[in-house]
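User: Sequence in, structure out. Go.
Assistant: Echoing your sequence, followed by the C-alpha cells.
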Amino acid sequence: MKIGAAVNIRAAVPCIALLLAAPLFAGENTDVVIMKNGDHLTCEIKGLDAGVLYISPDYILGTLSVDWSKVARLESKQLFIVRTEDGSVYTGTLNTGETPADRPVQIQVLEGPEKEETIESTKIVNMTQTSEKFWQRFNGAVNTGIIYSKGNSTTQYSLGSETEYLRERWSLEENFSSNLSASKGVTASTRNNLTLTGTHLLPWNNYFYSGIGSFLQSSELGIRLQSTLGGGIGRYIKHTNRVTFTVLGGFVWQNTGYTPSVVPISAQNLAAAAIATQLKVFKFNKTNLNLTAAFFPVVSEPGRVKLNTNLSYYIKLTGNLSWNISVYGDFDSQPPGNLPSSDYGSSSGLSWTFGLK
C-alpha cells in the first residue's frame, strides 16, 4: 500500500468516529444517585461497566466515575439495558426499593406498568443507556500514537477505533487498527485490520451466536487483502463486574490476495474451523485489559494452522482520556512462497472514549 493511501485511510477513521460520537449529547440531569456515606447526587446516569457507574452532573464538565459497590440507592426515568451474571437481559427504567442495611442493594427494573424485575446490585454486570433514537445507542473509543526518531528519520504511528451499537439481545461491533512505519530510503511497512462482529444472545442464558467479517492488509506478510467471513456459537464462561471470559467455536472461509511482486499466487481460498476466546479484566476506574485469540485449523489444507492475537491495555489518565498499549500477532504455519510465517508488533498512545464513558 502506498503511504498516501494509508494516510487517507487513517484520516477517514477519526472522521467516522466523530460522526458517530456527535449525536451523543447529554440527556436530562434528573437522575438521583445516593451513596452509602449519604452523599446525594442529581445527575444523568450514563451506564455501568466493569464495576464503574458513570454519571454526569450538570455542574461538572465530563463524566464522573463512581464505585458501584458504594451506591446505596438510585432512580432514573431513562431507558436502560441491564445485563446480569446469569446472562439475563432486561430493558426498563431504574429504581431502588427499601433494603435492610445488612442486605445487598436491590435494583428494580421497571419494564412496563405491570412488569417489574428486582435484581441484587452485585449480580448486575452491565447497564447501558439506550434510546429510541438510532444515534444515541453508540459507544466507543478512538486510539492514536506516534513515534519519531531523527537519527534514521523513522516515523511510526498507529490509529485505531472501537465502536459498539447495543440493543437488548444483540449488538454490532467495529474494531479498526492501522500501523505504519516509514524510514528514509526504505519502503514503508503497513498493516491495516478492520473487524466487524455481530452477536445475538440465544434463549439459553450466557450462550450466543456470532458472525464475523475481517479484512487485513499486511506488507510484512505480502498480503494485499485478506477477507475472512464466518460465524459460530459461543458461551460466557465468566461474566462479572471484574472479569469477562468467553469461548466460541465455528467455521470461517478465507480469501487471501497476495502482492504480485512478492508471491506469484494471485489469490488463495481456504476453509477452516475456528476456536476463539476473549478475556477482559477490569480494575475500578484504573486499568482495563482486553485479550483476544483466534485459532484456525485449516480444513482444506490439513496440517496448516493460523493464529491471530490482539492485546490492549488501558491506563486511565483523567475523564475520557486513557493511555493505551496494544500488541498484535499473526501466524501461518505454511505461508506460500518464501513469505515469513509471522508478523507482530506493538504501539502505545492516547485513547479517547465516547458514549457510555
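User: And one key feature?
Assistant: The helical segments are 3-21.
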